[in-house]
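Sorry, explain these tokens?

***
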Amino acid sequence: MAQDKTFRIQTIGAWLSIISAALSAVASVYYVIAANAAGNFSAVVLLCFACSAVCAAAYVIVPGEYSDVLNLIAVVLLAAGICNFAVSSIATLADVLSGITMFGSSGDIGYIIAIIVIAVVALVLEQVSCFMRRTK
């Protein structure tokens, strides 16, 4: 009887990609909640984070050589999401760092730092997994 090894995670590179997918999903959910509360929501950021989570998970689950490109796509989407989020949050960052309210920001920098840290950790893990093997 043949064993199906599709869902068996065998290497550290695959585990890193799964952890990155989970962190990207957490960043997506937290972004929706916090950005809506602050009035700073952007659908592009959400799509980048969510699609990156899907690509990172699909890289591990889908067998075949052509699914290796999903790992690279996840890195690009995460980087684009971080950049778009930083650009959309620049008014809040400028107001908090300068100490004066000039740009009409939401004033809450905590969720911005948290999302950036979560997304950067996911990005680094996904980049490291790009240089590792997916299967034994």
Remarks:
- The first helix runs from residue 12 to 38.
- Helices lie at 12-38, 43-61, 69-88, 90-98, 110-130.
- The chain is about 70% helix and 0% strand.
